[in-house]
Amino acid sequence: xxKRTGWLIYNREDAAKNSGYIDWMLDEAKKINxxxxxxxxxxxxxxxxxxxxxxxxxxxxxGLPDFAIVRTIDPFLTKQLEKLHxxxxxxxxxxxxxxxxxxxxxxxxxxGIPMADTVYCHGQPRSEDMEYPFIAKDIHGRGGKQVFLxxxxxxxxxxxxxxxxxxxxxxFGKDIRVFxxxxxxxAAVLRESSTTFKANYTLGGSASLYELSASEKTLVERVxxxxxxxxxxxxxxxxxxxxxxxxxxxxxxxxxxxSALSDLNxxxxxxxxxxEKLSIx
Length: 281
Hints:
The chain is of the alpha+beta class and 281 residues long. The protein has three domains: 4-89, Rossmann fold; 118-167; 170-263, ATP-grasp fold, B domain (D-amino Acid Aminotransferase, Chain A, domain 1, 2-Layer Sandwich). The chain has helices spanning 12-17, 19-31, 75-83, 92-98, 101-110, 153-157, 214-225, 256-261, 266-280, and strands spanning 4-10, 34-40, 44-49, 52-57, 60-61, 67-70, 87-89, 118-120, 134-138, 147-150, 164-167, 174-181, 184-192, 206-209, 231-238, 244-250.
């Protein structure tokens, strides 16, 4: 059997924070005969020379892999790899849409996925954009960062520079993350906080496994059908009537909550999915 080679791409700062996860992924790859190696984004150069696209490592030519697991947010890099016939997980399309909240909402609203009323801001949010209170989100923010509750004019003036959307608030301090690999729902987690309107586990919230109802599962499957996912987290908030509204899609999704709550080996499942995809093409 041919051993497939792969790059696991992180930037250095994130790699330092996720060394345990990286070791887990490299170890699981060995077990299923995938030759996976860690590369830092800062060491990878891309461009074109003599009308040919190229990738170099530390300014030197390098043999290209069969696949890349891109764990940094860089859709332009991913697109370059794809154009050189490297299978990327997640794809450049997922990276571009999922890491821009405005693009996520624009695309999924167009296919009828329920979401909170949203204004795509041209520059900083303004008091005219939406009646107070509202939520302001930097379109590139992750992990609950760059998300602010705006209750009066002075809150607006304290926002850092960025590109923003604003939304009508839903039920505060409570959301659902659904872990997805390919077209398969792996698990769902309820995240709650009694101290802040943000429910993120990494910000001090609590978490528990959550069983999706039939209607909730159908909505998740509609989102899945609109994309070609590798592994993502699809986050939902609750409307006043208790129904799901899509909040965002996490491209470079972590699994701390899932690992803390279950013995599911999501890394193994992801790598088996990648191996199967490579065997098909």
